[in-house]
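Weekly puzzle thread! Below is a chain. First person to post its structure in token form gets bragging rights.
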Amino acid sequence: MQARSGDLISDGPSSRLSELGIVLPAPPAPLGAYVESSDTGNLLFLSGTLPVVNGKLAIAGRLGANLSVKEGQEAARIASLNALAAAKQHLGGLDRLKKLTVLIATTEQFADHAAVADGASDLFVQIFGRETGHVRLVYGVQSLPIGAPVIVDTVFEIEVPPYSMSKPQH
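Winning reply:
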């Protein structure tokens, strides 16, 4: 699929990253006894990604307590870049984002969940295009691992080459 961006023509998400000047970080390492990614059929599931930079939490805290919506959006963007890095490591490239779930550490009074999650959604729209879209679920929680303000959970669609329709030769 080709998308037009000004006078540049993008051949897909990896080209779009280059056009935007985005360099993906090293893929995140699991914090426990699990794998970072797993695929089945035409879907790639990633473990939740945190706003980690160079192995350290870039932003810590809770929305509504000690973090602003803008800081939450940046945390969601960083976590999304880590998700893209994990997907690219698993697939060798990037395919279409199908589902995005954003967990946000908040106070009981915090109500701007959607605005924080837009930090992730806006990045994915820049990379995959508005026309491909993604479904999204956002909710607030009491706490997240290592004091992270957000976790981004993603499911990607894998482009599977068509199967051969010919019968095996005996």
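Puzzle host: Confirmed. Bonus trivia for everyone else. The chain is about 30% helix and 25% strand.
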